[in-house]
Amino acid sequence: MALLKSTKILNGVGAQAPVLAVLQLRASSWWTEVQMGPPDPILGVTEAFKRDTNPKKMNLGVGAYRDDQGKPFVLSCVRKAEAQIAAKKLDKEYLPIGGMAEFSKACAQLALGPDNEVLKSGRSITVQTISGTGSLRVGANFVSRFHNVSRDVYLPKPSWGNHTPIFRDAGMQLMAYSYYDPKTCGFDFKGALDDISKIPEKSVIVLHACAHNPTGVDPKPEQWKEMAALIKKRNLLVFFDMAYQGFASGDIDRDAWAVRYFIEQGHNVLLSQSFAKNMGLYGERVGGFTVVCKDAEEAKRVESQLKILIRPIYSNPPMNGARIASTILSTPELYKEWLVEVKGMADRIIKMREMLVSNLKKEGSTQNWQHVTDQIGMFCFTGLKPEQVERLIKEFSIYMTKDGRISVAGVTSANVGYLAHAIHAVTK
Amino acid sequence: MSIFGEVPQAAPVAVFKLTADFREDQNPRKVNLGVGAYRTDEGQPWVLPVVRKVEKMIADDHSLNHEYLPILGLPEFRSSSSKIALGEDSPAIKDNRVGAVQCLGGTGALKIGAEFLRRWYNGTDNTKTPIYVSAPTWENHNAVFSNAGFEDIRPYKYWDAGKRGLDLEGFLGDLESAPDHSIFVLHACAHNPTGTDPTQDQWKQIADVMKRKSLFAFFDSAYQGFASGNLDKDAWAVRYFVSQGFELFCAQSFSKNFGLYNERVGNLTVVAKDQDNLNRVLSQMEKIVRITWSNPPSQGARLVAITLNTPELFAEWKDNVKTMADRVLLMRAQLKEKLKALGTPGTWEHITEQIGMFSFTGLNSKQVEYLVKEKHIYLMASGRINMCGLTTKNIDYVAESIHEAVTTVQ
Question: SS3 for A94?
Fold first, then answer.
């Protein structure tokens, strides 16, 4: 390796003894051997989009909601909460390691329902985290340190790209269970059950609570019930990732149904929540991590250990977003307004799905596009092949990830026709 | 049967437990000299006037939204923060070999730096590379580096309890005997917990040894501006090392000097030999950030960036910082004066020689216990006091209590 590099130096600098060149190299920087990190595939899409000068260009890459004008959307309830908070002229003292207590309480209530027996008995602990990623990271670290009976984490195939490196870096081993059926662009229920039935006991299984990322394919309630029973039989540790509560169907209770059902069935789950999408608080980094325990005493022990995990990462979490979320969740008028706004976002997504399908039909497409409206949430696994995606990018300036995933949030009534036209062009 | 049946109860973090105990204490004379947060002379938290101003600007600007920041953070924040550390006219910045990662406070900056070093510093597995932290040091340093995977964390001599000052000879000795390429965590100014900083001349000696032995300098800068009241003065050590050709990391916190504690505003400044090396380092740090918190919180970074990049606001901020530093200096002077007036045994010069928020009083654990239990004055078992907890109203009580502790408890 060093010799190769010294050749480079020789070419640049002229005749020098290789050994000297290597010494110079070593003396020059600590970081000479540091490789260039691969570009993030999703952000890469946005970068390419930015450089494109085509006025019709569309960014269907990153998962952030856009309104029908294609603009970022700051919720009205968020602005109101912000104004309320500003008027209070609060101080900026450190939050506790586990975050704002009022936020954690409201966060858990939102997920579990305010009358949940778990909350009444105090047998769960929720800590405020750095949005969904931070929550998963703390959860992964917790599992790695304390779930000594297994190193295996089972992800659905496919899953959010960042799940794998997070769990791996925490010291876990990544495995997969069947989930997406490319033939139907739907849920491979049989495949999932088959795979889950073979997962070794006590392994960790990650489930997307709703609006599966990247496919948009969710199990139906009856399917969730069977999965819950099987997972119970296999004695697996359930880790729910819920990044889209409210955002999927427009109904926060409906979107949390699977989480609540599993808990009812006796699963003491781990749960990651994000408020990035459903409150549009992306950059404020608002999230929660919950551990449902056997009893309140265990919850206290678990809480103490979560703090020990959190302190050496970032000491304590940021206040701004949590305060906004907490204000909204605990102020009745704001909460009501939020429910309406989150439904508004979900409804627009659903409408765009419908418009895309109807426009494809109008274009004369004979393909089956049912999955576009069957799928739910921000993302749609179109079923487009890499070559087709390539063409969409190159010929139409429509940007998406290579797996054919589009962020429906990037679709508007103004550009859905163009999108349908382009998709038809590459699939006919 | 629960999977978490065996999870033991962890001990609480000492400094937070102290504050919790203080809160529960009903005694009207109680004083909190524990946690490192600034307090006004009324004993209240202080949101800097410039911060309130900029907060309002941000709130009134409806063109701003809450979209994700880039993984490495807000560009204007990163560059202006690095300028604060290295100087407006830093040659390293002009050479395009300075970069930064916006992080969650100083802790987050240390974390990202530590994770990077463990993966990439000297070969691709640095779990055995020694990390040296001062004896004593901020209690979280150890955990940050051990959680990042470093297995060999060692103390370097620093505090001389006997003379209540810097053990330079011990420090230099540990530098000499450290294996080459070891990593040293250096406090840029206002050493926590001792408040004892090397002089410029002593820093030069330290740098000499470090250069000779290829020791890596990882600066922890949590009090720039807060220590002397002057930003440039407090950054002298970091800038000196840069001028000596060191590649280094500087973990910056804006918790204290901006009073933005709970917004988690930090910056990991990276100084590399050249832009190419810098870019590769940043690309790898990006990967680490992505699996830790994805991207950093925007509110605090916006606040700092606007302040640093707007001349009038920048001037106002420097003024606010000086206000805080001056009050601390006043409390130091008054405490020493009162102890001397009381005839409290021992020398108390260290109270004014030490710098920044903290003072290592030299009180032993029994005396500390006496202060906490009998006098309801809360301080760390190490004898560390937060000068910000002193006010013109409680300083007499504290001085008298220290006097009592020293004269009646051995």
Answer: coil
Homologous superfamily (CATH) of B14-46+326-408 is Aspartate Aminotransferase, domain 1 (3.90.1150.10)
Dig out the tokens for A233 from the structure.
Answer: 């039989």
Is A280 an interface residue toward B (CB < 8 Å)? yes
Is the Cβ pair B10, A92 closer than 8 Å? no
- A42 pLDDT tier (thresholds 50, 70, 90): confident
CATH 3.40.640.10 for domain B75-309, yes or no, is yes
Domain hosting residue A166, numbered range: 94-330
Q: Which residues of A touch B260 (CB under 8 A)?
A: 92
DSSP, residue by residue, B114-164: HHHHHHHSSSS--TTS-EEEEES--HHHHHHHHHTT---EEEEE-EETTTT
Kindly report the CATH number assigned to the domain that includes residue A258.
3.40.640.10
Spell out which residues of chain B touch residue A297, defining contact as CB-CB under 8 Å: none
What separation in angstroms does the CA of A226 have from each of A219, A235, B86, B271?
10, 14, 60, 56
**Average pLDDT, whole number, for chain A?**
92
The answer to whether the CB atoms of A97 and B13 lie below 8 A apart is yes
Interface test with A, best of B16, B65, B66, B111 (most A CBs within 10 A): B66
Name residue B75's amino acid. Answer: P
* A305/B13 Cα distance (integer angstroms): 11
Instruction: Name every chain B residue with its beta carbon within 8 A of the beta carbon of A304.
Output: 9-12
Q: Are strands A58-59 and A398-399 parallel, antiparallel or unpaired?
A: parallel
Nearest-by-Cβ selection for B10 from A92, A281, A308 = A308
Residues of chain A numbered 171-230 and touching chain B (CB < 8 Å) = 202
Task: Provide the domain count of chain A.
Answer: 2
What is the tens place of the pLDDT at every residue in A312-367? 999 999 999 999 999 999 999 999 999 999 999 999 999 999 999 999 999 999 99
Chain B interface mutation, best of A320, A326, A341, highest count of B Cβ atoms under 10 Å:
A320
Other C-beta atoms lying within 10 Å of the C-beta of residue A185: 22
Residues B220, B141 contacting (CB under 8 angstroms): yes
Tell me if residue B256 is catalytic.
Answer: yes
**pLDDT for residue A26 is more than 80:** no
Based on the fold, state whether residues A361 and A305 are members of the same structural domain: no
Note the ipTM here: 0.94
Size of interface A-B (CB pairs under 8 A): 230
d(Cα A164, Cα B268) in Å, to the nearest integer? 26
Where are chain B's structural domains?
14-46+326-408, 75-309
A169 is catalytic: no
Query: Token pair of B276, please?
Result: 């190419």
Could you tell me if A385 and A282 lie in one domain? no
Contact (CB<8Å) A37/B59 = no
